[in-house]
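assembly run, all chains below
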Amino acid sequence: MPDLLIELFSEEIPARMQAKAASDLQRLVTDGLVEAGLTYSGAGAFSTPRRLALSVEGLTAESPDTREERKGPKVGAPEKAIEGFCRGAGIARETLEARDTGKGEVYFAVIEKPGRKAAEIIAEVLEDAIRNFPWPKSMRWGSGSLKWVRPLHSIICILSDEAGADVVAVDIDGIKSGDNTQGHRFMAPDAFSVTSFDDYESKLKRAKVILRADERADMIWSEASNQAFAAGLELVEDKGLLAEVSGLVEWPVVLMGTIADDFLGLPPEVLTASMKEHQKFFSVRDKTGQVVRFVTVANRETKDHGETILAGNQKVLFARLSDAKFFWENDLRIAKTGGAEWLNALGNVTFHNKLGTVAELVNRMAALSADVAPLVNADASEAAAAARFAKADLSSEMIYEFPDLQGLMGRYYAKEAGLSDAIAAAAQDHYSPLGPSDDVPTAPVSVSVALAEKIDKLTGFWAIDEKPTGSKDPFALRRAALGVIRLVLENDLRLNLDRFIDAQLVRQKFKVEDSLTNDEVNELVELIAKHGVFGAAYRTMKDVWGKSDKVLSDGFGALEQSVPDKSVELLAFFHDRLKVYLRDEGISHDVIDASLAMPGNDDLLLLVNRAEALAAFLKTDDGENLIQGFKRANNILSQAEEKDGVEYSFGADIKFAETDEEKALFAALDAADAKIAPAMEAEDFAAAMSAMADLRKPIDAFFETVQINADSDLLRRNRLNLLHRIRTICLSVADLRKLAG
Amino acid sequence: MSDTPRSFQEIILRLQAYWAAKGCAIMQPYDMEVGAGTFHPATTLRSLGNVPWAAAYVQPSRRPTDGRYGENPNRLQHYYQYQVLIKPSPPDLQALYLGSLQAIGIDMEMHDIRFVEDDWESPTLGAWGLGWEVWCDGMEVSQFTYFQQVGGHDCHPVSGELTYGLERLAMYVLGVDHVMDMPFNDPDAPIPLSYGDVFKQAEQEYSRFNFDIADTEILLKHFEDAEKECAAILSHEQIDPKTGHKIVMAQPAYDQAIKASHLFNLLDARGVISVTERQAYIGRVRTLSKLCADAFVQTAAGGAA
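ok done. output:
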């Protein structure tokens, strides 16, 4: 069985595209071969900066003959139909066979396809793969129209077996296949021919090309680690950088260089960012964590063992770090004066054209951060100050140069500005959590600002109707909502979101509604804090202003509808995100719905505590059975209520209880009541549910022995009223009617 | 092994000689203020259409925002680019390019040359291409681009463009740490001149002017004038009533586009263009570039029959 070797040799392929390109080549070619009837035993794809290679082993030498029969029109059918059928089947009219099918004579086409040589198939499949290659970006060159990631220069396409190797002839816009390639661009540029994959890989190695990216990565990592270790230092791990650097070299040579003392005062993150982004250097740190050296990976050996190359790299780094130091020192100067210059500059930066500048954003965040502070045990004025400084670094030169360092630089600058450690931490941490696995801040001031940042963002985009739809969420609002959820839950925060959503919507509306005044916003927000809800605050303010000589603006009037509407929508969005979050924690949809239906559902911690208790309860034997008992009681009661057109809520009387079981249920309900009410008061859902579980046996026994629809109307009514007590008690814990099954 | 050049101008002269030997027309800088060598009509306009072309030239380039009063070791508001444009791009363009590095004294046996992905896009020219930045020992020494589109037109055939940042490259080759210390002419010349002797004062003067003095109202007015003039030039009949010939005035119009682009850069340096306005200005310059490209492809040099 022959083996296939393909190499597509081109000018330098971007490092980030190489791995996927290799696997795309493998997929396109092997799928094509299989589709054409060939089989193979194994395949592997490889990439270097200048080549994609594919090895397919144990390929069948030819595809099998195939025979297919197709049933066509009846004999005597219109000639057009018969012709069409022949055309479709790709056979001549005279080869049609007429056969009796029992329902008359019908034409059959017998399509026989002889097997094809592997080489013929490969040539087609490869050409197809090259012409339709899924590069993220491709280009033309010279006068041609072929597209490739960069100019394609040569193609190896050979089939080899014990007898030797044959070139599979392919000609793509003048690029003819052969068995030739080249080694390292500088160290071994001569062309050479190959006879098989093993021959190819070993000749490449002799020509200073390591074909396998993982081998190059291993070489780089182990050599760099060894050099760092030998100097008593440690290489800073960076898998992304390692993969990228492996795609920039065919023959990796690791060189470790020093960082001039002038720069060791820079924050290590700045050193690392500067070295990585511009130079693709690895960082090497000492035992204290200070970055003191770098590792660069050259693509060649030299007579001077890389001395010239290293000196050049060090020089470039010197210039880069001089820039970074220049930015850092300028920034420090501004930071030491408190950063007022930066904060002013934020007034010129648009956050969103309908939501104003970043300076306006910061003011809203500061107000909300102060509101939230007492509930997270933060000092309100410190929380506000932290929010005001949180975006200052966005104006700094360092962030202009290295946007990824936002927040982190803010922390450094806050310290220089003489602000508290808590404020400095918040400057960095208020962006968190960014993703589902990102750490959640726990320091109170950081939590205040982080909540303020996210709630402000959500209310802002809700206020201007820029909500996520389907897969589109350009402002990452889902992530912001999940961030709020995680901040609340992981810090065990008790807070009623409604109040903060309402207040912040009012602040957002100040920007959106033309006529709304600052005074109106301030007073209304204060009233919301006092009343805890928008509606009462709004009415109070309308009353008070109505009695004075102050005139409310049209913008104020517009709030009456819009704030409650948006608030309800946004809370529902939080609930949706919470469902997704809890589903991942193993709590099912209906359990959450049963908890959501209870009052206080804007208190996410309370909501989750209830849902978790309910989920745990449902896992117990008593729980499951109690739900059945509840449902039975509820169904019977509901039907009776509907039929009789009354509500049976008069209170059942034990003196009409006939059987022991009925009496026992009365007693059990009294006992449960006595336990559940105080447990609910204390928000101890587990205790409440455990008390509810005690009802299971009495309810089961009651249903087993007592007939609800008794002949006596008095008894029937009393029993329905008793069912009503079951319903009331159970529904006080969660809306069990929402549970599935 | 090539011997090492001794001055900034020797590097320029060697590049000129090298590319002349490879068959390029050695052109002179365009006589207008531009942000990069690409703006020279020998690149932008000549990359359009199917007429073969090969040119190389030095282009003084201005980036007002990069002014540092001559203090920064490698940032300048005025600097030189060396530009090569060959259409269609020859198959051995990479090798030709590496030859030029050898010509200026970079020994391939001792240095680490790398082609690192860098896609080029000029929003004001409505142009893009794919290629690399070329690294020598970790330093970017050139941009290497295969033009795919210019002025909104697909490039057929494709031009290969090489751009060398001359000061940076020369500093590296000459082993100089501060651009102002770099020998401009031969250090043993009767009157040796450094880069600083030639340009330091100009850097100071232009830095002050660009950042603080340039009259933004005048600049804005000039921008609008250039914009108007560009469109006006192209609105004329293609047949010249005086000569009776078809004379499309693509190049005079393009001069106005170049002006608008530079005025925009100056306004940007003055900090009077907000983030949102910025996009709008870029769009206005791009519109001009496209108009000029549309006109050029109707001329003989642009491949019109």
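The radius of gyration of chain B is 20 Å.

Residues 275-296 of chain B form the longest helix (22 residues).

not gonna interpret more than that til we talk
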